[in-house]
Amino acid sequence: MAGGHSPGVRRRRLSAALRKLRVDRGMSAASVAEKLKWSTGKLTRSERNEWRFPKRTDVEALLDLYGVEGDDRAHLLSLTEEARGRSDWHEYADLFPGALPDLEAEAVRIRSYEALAIPGLLQTPGYAAAIFESGGVVPPEDTQRKVESRMARRSVLDAPKGPQLISVIDEAVLRRAVRSPEVMAEQLRFLQGMASHYKVTLLVVPFDAGAHTAMDGAFSLLEFPNPEPGIVSISTGVESLYVEDEAYVDRHRLIFDGVHNLALDPRKSLDLIESIAAEHDKRA
Length: 284
Description:
Layout: H1 7-24, H2 29-36, H3 40-47, H4 56-66, H5 70-83, H6 100-106, E1 109-114, H7 125-133, H8 140-153, E2 164-170, H9 171-175, H10 181-194, E3 200-205, E4 219-223, E5 231-235, E6 240-243, H11 246-262, H12 266-283
Parallel strand pairs: 1-2, 2-3
Antiparallel strand pairs: 1-4, 4-5, 5-6
């Protein structure tokens, strides 16, 4: 499904650019809204990327007020048109309020650490369904769509300009019994296969590595072509957080580097996955 540009990411960039223009000119949201005869809420929604289809006339009004001309104006108006498109993921839009698939499609590299579960891009349908069905949080009628959407996300790895994935997982992820030994054995065999994908690097942090910098929890670092800022993605049971603050992103780069350095190399990681898969096989 991954292809072309991603309207969700374009809207995010447009919102950030418009907010920066206002701040750089020393104008408050209230003063801009008053000059344009808008509600303050309308301006705030545009700067927070809470709009669905940006109106060209609204963007033109803002650019006129901020005095943006020439190439900068042309670029932002082009961005506006691209932001008005429909994402490849529109049928699953309600499942991804943070536009995660669009962000993954635009990224050049994704580095993730997982402490409790197999990374979403590397899950099998059986494993994903077990996760969604655990605890009864996801309504049964929504489980199949969520599984389908998670499997479809993986197409980003096969796209010509898709991202490189460097996934570091804790040994506990491999040993945690999700639904049944059969499901776990299948999942770990699938991991072994995905490790041979030319865009995937899979590393395991063994128990004997001891304490490390990422023990506070899982996260992903999405990196984009320069000069676009990186994003830290943190998923919880109820929401996904996307943080672009430079200091926050830099801190997570250091955390990732720390846990990456403790992980087994790719060959030894695969050997450990194989041995744990065999243990699940014995219990099946």
